[in-house]
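Minutes, methods subgroup
Present: GH (chair), OT, SY

1. OT presented the first of two proteins processed in the latest run. Sequence and structure tokens recorded below as shown on screen.
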Amino acid sequence: MSVPKSATATLQYLDSTQANPAVNQSQPHHLHSSAHMSPPKVVITRNLGQGAQAFLQSQSTDLEVAQWQSDEPCPRAWLLQTVPGATGLLIMVSDLIDTELLSAAGPQLKTIATFSTGTDHIDLPALKARGIRLGYITDCLSDAVADLAVMLVLMAQRRGAEALARVSRGDWPQLPWHPGLMTGPQIRGKTVGFLGFGRIAQATAKRLLGFGIAKVVYVTSKPGVSVKEDYYGLSGDAEKVQVEVVSDLSRLASESDVVVVGCGLTPSTRHLVNAEFLSKMKKTAVLVNIARGPVVDTNALVEALDMGLIFGAGLDVIEGEPDIPADHPILKQPRWLWSLCRTF
């Protein structure tokens, strides 16, 4: 039912720095009085920035907005307390959407939008069973993540993090120059393998053409089946680089000089990069993960780096982030780097 433009809704905000979300008595701050007709209720789990907040304010006659105003993740208790009666829900990747929360929301919940590309924090079958539509981000970060992937490839190959650490420790004066000092493999003429070949992976491959790569191999969720979408015109670059879909993970691991992990996280892709996969990679190869942390078995990666089974690794994500203690084994590895870019 549409709400008359003249209606005055209740725009609600809860400042996490001033209220205890675990206590039922904590109340949102009311900016407007109630309307004669109840407007649709939307729950938002984070501050969205100045521009978006101004837009929300402009919609105060059409919506009842309950929003967690902090830049920190909203507590589960607050979300469960606030979501009943909501028609729409705008969430972050840190918010778990499961049957408990959907039941708390009630049958009038029709739409969920997630401020992320990945959807592994959402129970998709539960949404389908309830007829709830899901919106997610598809392309706004493709360029940013592809740029980051290229940085991780080059830094991992050329030992950038290791060099920076040695200089920071004051080791440089004790490192006499010689032709092999801090050298690593180059990207020109090499084969780059992609686990998953969607928009971001293709954007990464397109950028790497400028560095003179010779071949791209990739696997998808349907082994041996080529991707339908050519987002960046790679098919028109056949004279510059060979692009081939493969059905065998072992072949991709053994042929690639760089492996870029870009697939979604599902039960079948969890620890897809495991000890067996890493053992088949070249000793001069590097691994880059721009997907989700659990796609790579971190313990297996640490062991592979320890044993020199691969040359290095560049991680945009890691299992268990952000709860990575100072004594985590990966932090002791000289030939790895981490972008500290939170999952999106």
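2. SY then presented the second protein from the same run.
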Amino acid sequence: MNTRTLRFLSRSLLLYHTTHRSFTTTAIKMSAPSLPHQIISSLRSLHQPLPLATAESCTGGLIANELTDIPGSSEVFRIGVVAYSEEAKEGVLGVARETIREKGVVSEEVAVEMAKGARLQALKTLSDSTPNLAYGISTTGELGLGSQQDTAWLAIVGPEESRIRTKLLKGDQIRWDRKTNKLVTAYEALELLREQIEGWKKDSD
């Protein structure tokens, strides 16, 4: 997220935790109301709209939910997978068992393999005449541990498989309750995706 968004979000969360008032997802969505819309619009505006798929663990489908709230998202959003268990990450997304064993389920390597698996699912929905380009986005982490122990890895792969971007969230970035941390993580992943799309568009001009 940009500095303005993070500042707004931090103030909102601080108010909640100091007053113990009921906090809803509205504050976070108000901080970046156009982010999902920007992503869908960017993907649709290309000469050949690029498909997108999500592979979520710790965010539990929130990214897919935010994107599909946007009218016209069906033109680019193809599939959303909530792979919560290690078995689902392996069986559905193709994450290697060795990667989980050696790096841990909450790791950059697992996040990247999840995003690659999501991208592959998106590519499977395309016709043979369509360019082999698509985006995969993933999240894996532990949210709700408390005491600033929460950790999340985000990954974006696409539109080519070699174009990869990752981000680690921890400490003060996700220091809230479980529900709030999930939403913060989802929006951080969306911002990472937006940056990836804009970067590719600039490189392609």
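Chair's summary of item 2: The first strand starts at residue 52 and ends at 56.
Next meeting: continue with the remaining queue.
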